[in-house]
Amino acid sequence: MLNYNYFTALFHALDEVQTKKLFIQLAHQYHPDKGGNSEIMQNLNTAYQTHLNKVRSGEIKERQDEIDRELIEKVNLISKYRDIKIEILGSWIWLTGNTKAHKEDLKSYGFSFAPKKEAWYYRREEDKKSHSRGDYSLDEIREKYSSKFDGIRTSKSKILQLTSS
Fold this sequence. Notes:
Blueprint (H helix, E strand, L loop, with lengths): L3 H8 L4 H15 L7 H20 L1 H20 L5 E6 L2 E6 L5 H6 L3 E3 L4 E5 L14 H7 L7 E2 L12
Parallel strand pairs: 1-5
Antiparallel strand pairs: 1-2, 2-4, 3-4
């Protein structure tokens, strides 16, 4: 069922413009006049309004700043390894390249290995509680989160500075 939590998860890292754009797309898809049902539309509306209020109050910005600080700390730990490619996709860090040589260090930094993707990843503790949204390849994840930057790739083309605050 497409409940409030489902829509909240879709909106969780979006700014006001992105939220409105996604809402319009989803409203066209789930509106009762377009073949959807009223319960799903109510869940969408509630999640949209709640998220928009958080964005406007600055709560989302503060949360994103906290996520960025945590990711920057992790990137700083592994940036010394020049043979590892670092990508930040959403709120996850993905590592590819010559990671085998640094396996024990990566484990000690909190990274896990994804054998199907042949890549290491880091996700924040709160992201571990969310359910899997599918079995995506790393390329599909890159496409979804708009990874564009070479060397260190970031979501939505946001380049993070490699220094702790």
